[in-house]
Amino acid sequence: KTVGWEGSSVERAWRLLRECLEKIKSGECFRVVAEKILFMERSVALPLWLVEYYKKKCPEDLLRIYLKAGSVEEAGLFAISVLEQAERIKPGVPKASTRWISYTVLDQLIAALNISENEKSLAEVKSGLAKYLKRVSEESVTICEKVRY
Phi, psi at residue 44, to the nearest 5°? Predict the structure, then answer.
């Protein structure tokens, strides 16, 4: 099947992996693949399609995987991206998996960034988190007021 595909053997292997995961549609399989990639070879970045899967479905899971693998810088960059994306979502009642992010995971990331002394990422995550928490708080109050009346 892959012989007719364009690209190098590495590109075709990534494509085959992606197609297999999309057919299986199991979050557990995506998790195993992400962990194996990060634990086997630290110099290999996760493919963009895998990062995008997590960004859309369950961003806090990828943050946990990055932290577990010791990939603190990647976790910081991903968190910044997710928080910026959350800022762009229109107010209302969005899907929880793409909007509500566990504060506990973000707190763990901040602690890891403090230890790693990555001041730039730490400042960006803290700034993004402050904006995110302010907006979520305002939305929560608005939603609660609508429910009350």
Answer: -95, 120
